[in-house]
Here is the input.
Amino acid sequence: MRRFLSLGLLCALLLSISFTAQAQSDSNPPDDPAALELLEALDVRSYPAKGEAITAILQSDDERARDWLQALLDGRLQRTDDGRFVVVLDNRGRDWPVADALTNEPLGDMSRRELDRIGINNALRNQLRSAIAVVDLYSPDVERRRSSAERLLGEVDEELAEPLGELITEEEDRQVQRRLAQALAIYQVESGQLEGVEALRGSLHPRARVALSRAASGEDPVIADAASEALTSIEQNLKINRGIETLYFGLSLGSVLVLAAIGLAITFGVMGVINMAHGELIMLGAYTTWMMQQLLPGQPGLALILSIPAGFMVAALAGIAIERGVIQFLKGRPLETLLATFGISLILQQLVRTVISPLNRTVITPEWMSGSLVVNDALSLTLNRMFVLGFALVVFAGLMLIMRRTRLGLEVRAVTQNRAMARSMGIRATRVDIMTFALGSGVAGLAGVALSQLTNVGPNLGQNYIIDSFMVVVFGGVGNLWGTLVAGLSLGIINQVLEPWAGAVLAKIIVLVFIILFIQKRPRGLFPQKGRAAEG
Amino acid sequence: MTTLQRKTHPRTLGRFTTGLIAAAVMGASAHAVAQDNDPIKVGILHSLSGTMAISESTLKDTVEMLIEQQNDAGGLLGRELEAVVVDPASNWPLFAERARELLAQHEVDVVFGNWTSVSRKAVLPVFEELNGLLFYPVQYEGEESSENVFYTGAAPNQQAIPAVEYLINEVGIERFALVGTDYVYPRTTNRILEAFLKDEHGVADEDIMINYTPFGHSDWQNIVSEIRRFGEEGKPTAVVSTINGDANVPFYRELANQGIDAADIPVIAFSVGEQELSGIDTGPLVGHLAAWNYFMSVDTDANYDFIDAWIDWTGDDMAVTNDPMEAHYIGFNMWAEAVRKAGTTDVDAVKEAIIGVTVPNLSGGYAAMMPNHHITKPVLIGEVQDNGQFDIVWQTPSTVAGDAWSDYLPGSRDLIADWRAPMRCGNFNVANGSCGGSTAAEEAEAALAE
Here is the structure.
């Protein structure tokens, strides 16, 4: 009886196996068992086994191999509950559109519960990248060849070295050619050939440097000498590049400080209003950017450009409201102004928290602002910061123009120098106050637009910049726009020069101590205002 | 949904004293009188405003959701649960005041709350003085065990140590950059990690780089380029990040802009979860790692049910769940189970009953409350995907019990915590066989500061 039962069980088991096999071959085209087998080998738990499966796919000469590997690399190669391999086309939200991995036929939306993804780890990711790079080496697309050559630096092995020589001579693109030659040279150095050392002379790429420094401590004296000689000149070159890099970092930090402070240089510096809500005006500008990107989905670049006037307007209007609502009643009472505007800053923060969200908002960096400008292998300048640096200079130039060349600028200067006299000359001082405060606030909004590309857009954004802003304005000399520019940039550079050896925390403290001492010596800052107005 | 309770009975204090006297006179029977059919009060002590609102406000919602679910299932001991929400506004001293308000004025039976270590340290004396119960849901630096606090987040041996072991054994990393925000959690964690790397794995001094930055640090250019150079020396390098909150976005952005990819130098983070990622454009982060005890991508039915409930509760289709939320889920169920076991919400009885209580977690296993008031957790390593979720690439074969006192620090090595009778000690020194009282903790802290 028991035997009978187990036999029956076995039959049922066998049947179910053949049944699932049937189901699988039904769901995938029956004429493609080889491809299915290749993919099935990927669906195992062990990562080394997956690695072997990837190699098998690579050697299969299947034309879909690259697409599969790319999908696997992106985590989009998944398996449905009924064993079908699919590629997820968009993995946002709860239901994802998928397409069949073998036929590319779209299969509509599927929920996460139905899909099992073929997981990979960083080791496999590295292997996949190298595998894709090898495939791409023969690609007709020059961009693919470029990134492939980039990838192969330090990854060339004996097997690849042979065809590489031929590929280099056949290659038409100079950049690819140079990179491949370097990759080959690194392999040569590593395998102890002198010609590789010669080829790597002057190369700033870290992989080349690592290969050379290993060779320099190697056993062959001829190669070791040549390598260490090549290294010395490389190290020197690197030092210069690092100097330039630090300078750039400093200028970039400085430009952020200038942007954050320059609006304050007008409201505090020129008008003398201590506006603690300045940071929140910056925050409003940043949120405007986010809002614009929400209004124009899929066009982050256009939204960012439109945010420049929008951010200015929003912050300027908020500034007018603050000026009319609070500050005008507290004229000449700095302590009360300070407290009242501090209160406004807290109100604005909590308002954003309650109305929008306490969570940070995602502001997308447009494609043309991501990444870096590669100067050479040791020096690349990040693009987003370069844009911000340029933007800061443009804003500064614009403000200078307004203050020096327009009627508004003239009136502002007149009112701040001698209010009574200006009024008796027919200038409407109250209107000038509003305009000036709106201008300063609007510029803070512009700073927010720029900062949204560098840091978090959240309710606390402004808090992080308010102290720095006051510091820059006071250090530069109250009431002097040039002072703000010079102070911001020089504080940025000092900070970045100090940071590598003092650490970020200590560097900040040293800068603050320096400013305290400086203000003791020169209370009016770098560029003190001259004339009778300054004495008052 | 928020039930901001603000009872201002002028006679509350009087009632409270009377209650105390009654309790002293009648002993345990007083509790039976107090119970009747009054709702059980559950205090929620999470910041709803200020800098920490970003992380803590979702935890308040989580506890409210759990309370509602419990009420739908018939409450506890036949009584309704009622949430008492207060807002400590990210202000550490205010945490202590609000905790006192919850315990003394609202007479809550249990409190779920706190995020930062400094806020926990601020409320600790209040909970010990008024004998309250606090469930603390966030990963922390360890070196603490209080009779009144239950630590449902990870201790360092449940997060940092397994994460580094993963890097060494699975990824083959030989050089470590320990980068953190300058406060107690990163400093303690990095000290533990440094000792662990040197003693257990023989990592040389020059292969460890330690860097601290101020809160909300936004200019990462120099540090990232330093990390890049640190990683260019030919040995596989990883960054172990204890960078807190807001500073993460500019950090990862700078990494991406300087062309550092996860395949070159992976970053493993202990404070970056699904919620933090929801504020970032995750494209450039793909492949970077995080170590937690729960990920939203965990493939279990319990987790999918939890996610569905959460999405229904928030009404936001894109709402995410994260590790501290799971910790509250576990903590809440443990407390409910202990109350059921004890048959009362009385603090001492629940404290007694909860040790050994085992409840399911969301990753398909079970969490047990240990005698040192920490719980058992699996450790998961996840890689960031471009949709803001984590792909789980590794996990410990079984759960790991939380260790209140690290084995890798001098001064804390010999300490254990055990709140069962007859030991009842949070810092028992096994070397000299005595309960150290507060001095042992201070010594450990002094050793840390040195």
